[in-house]
Structure formats: C-alpha cells, structure tokens
C-alpha cells in the first residue's frame, strides 16, 4: 500500500512536530511515485507493507495578497489528488475563522478527511468530548483522532487509521 497524505492546518497547530515524530530519521527515503512540481514531499514513512508520502500543500491559508487566489486554486487541486487529508487543529483553541476558511475549501473536495486534534496534553480530558462534538457538526470527517504530537499519545493509532485509507 502506498499513498499521498496532505496535512492541512493553521500555523503552529503542530504539523511539523507530527511529521518529525512519525518520520524522524527516515526522512531521507524517497518514493518512486511521480512528484509534481507543486507538491513538495516533506517525508516518506515506510512501514512493513505501507508507504505514507506526506506532502506540503502551501496556500490553503487565508490569502494575504493577490497571488493568494492562484495559490488557493493550486492548493485545492492538490487536495483533490491526494489519497487522504489530515486536518490538524489545536485542542487548546476553539473553532475559529481560520478553521472555518479551511473547511470551506474542503467543500469541493471528495478526498477523505480526518480531523486530527493535536496538543491534547494541554487540555483536561473532560474538555475533549465537547471539542470533538463541535467539530463533528461542521464537517463529516471520516475519522476524528485526538493526539499529542509532542508526547506521542495516540500517534500510532492515527497511523493505523491512515493505513486503512491508502
Ligand atoms: P506547525 O506550524 O503546524 O508546523 O507547528 P509546529 O510543529 O512548528 O509546532 C508549533 C508549536 O507547538 C511548537 O512549539 C511545538 O513544540 C508545539 N507543539 C506541537 N505539537 C504539540 C503537542 O502535541 N503538545 C504541545 N504541548 N505542544 C505541541
Ligand atoms: Mg511547520
């Protein structure tokens, strides 16, 4: 099994921390899958019978300048081509304009989307369920996975779930 995965989320939600945790030293392994110029491969995780190719999808944030419109189109096309999208949010912060904006972009995309709620080490466990519920009513995510990219909680479970969508 092999597939492309795009991690989408506002700055500082923990995308790089997650990639570093799952790929770490294995980051140098490159895939033989065709690579388009607009998609930068950030890392490839090779497990026994699965290869997960994480790609960078720039431009999905609210545009700060005119070029942003073009970037947004490119980003949306990329989202249509990947096998899975991980939408990462920060458990400490509520659903905001940034998330709303990104979810709007998902409307035109048929790619399966997971909601990854990161930084659960920073919140009280009782607060997790309300967060999950508030996101679930915004979009029909295929899976909702709370993790701590920093401490590693639930990251293995997320990888298992990713596997089933490749
Ligand atoms: P990115 O902009 O989405 O790539 O976010 P980064 O991976 O650079 O992380 C931004 C900040 O959040 C860094 O200071 C990380 O150490 C911190 N961070 C990332 N994941 C976690 C987490 O699971 N728990 C906590 N407490 N901090 C985290
Ligand atoms: Mg980053």
TrEMBL record:
Residues 35-39 are annotated as: G2. It is found in: Cytoplasm; Cell membrane. Residues 9-16 are annotated as: G1. GTP binds at residues 9-16, 56-60, 118-121. Residues 56-59 are annotated as: G3. Residues 118-121 are annotated as: G4. Its main location: cytoplasm. It is a peripheral membrane protein. Residues 147-149 are annotated as: G5. It comes from the Bacteria. Residues 1-166 form the Era-type G domain. Keywords: Cell membrane, Cytoplasm, GTP-binding, Membrane, Nucleotide-binding, Ribosome biogenesis, RNA-binding, rRNA-binding. Monomer. Belongs to the TRAFAC class TrmE-Era-EngA-EngB-Septin-like GTPase superfamily. Era GTPase family. An essential GTPase that binds both GDP and GTP, with rapid nucleotide exchange. Plays a role in 16S rRNA processing and 30S ribosomal subunit biogenesis and possibly also in cell cycle regulation and energy metabolism. This is GTPase Era. The lineage of its organism: Bacteria, Bacillati, Bacillota, Bacilli, Bacillales. The gene is era.
């Amino acid at each position: 099994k092999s597939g492309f995965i795009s991690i989408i989320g506002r700055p500082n939600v923990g995308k790089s921390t997650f990639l570093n945790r799952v790929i770490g030293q294995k980051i140098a392994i490159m895939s033989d899958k065709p690579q388009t110029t607009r998609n930068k491969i950030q890392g490839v995780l090779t497990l026994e019978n699965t290869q997960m190719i994480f790609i960078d999808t720039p431009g999905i944030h609210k545009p700060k300048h005119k070029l942003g419109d073009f970037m947004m189109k490119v980003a949306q096309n990329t989202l249509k081509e990947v096998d899975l999208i991980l939408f990462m949010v920060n458990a400490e912060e509520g659903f905001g304009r940034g998330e709303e904006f990104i979810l709007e972009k998902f409307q035109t995309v048929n790619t399966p989307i997971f909601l990854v709620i990161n930084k659960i080490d920073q919140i009280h466990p009782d607060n997790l369920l309300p967060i999950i519920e508030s996101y679930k009513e915004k979009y029909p995510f295929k899976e909702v996975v709370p993790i701590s990219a920093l401490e590693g909680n639930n990251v293995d479970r997320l990888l298992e779930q990713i596997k089933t969508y490749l």
